[in-house]
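SECTION: protein entry
WANTED: fold as tokens:
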Amino acid sequence: MRMTECGDGKPDLVSELLDMFGLAGRLKTELRHPWLSDGRQESVAQHCWMIALMAFVIAPHLEHKVELPEASMLILVRELA
């Protein structure tokens, strides 16, 4: 992430967040390595969206409680690493 400073010498949080959003936006065009059953590749963003949707739909039906905010964070942040 690009680090800029405010007048007080501290990193500019807004600049850091904008950099992070730019990185996340590139996930729309970053293709995953596995091929889908129909012979195409999906983007990282498409994959994250589908996994998050699956978590929200399936979680209420599981025997063990799933903390959806934490699960969603793991799903999204994992792809930024």
Remarks:
- The radius of gyration is 17 Å.
- Residues 13-78 form one domain.
- DSSP finds three helices and no strands in the chain.
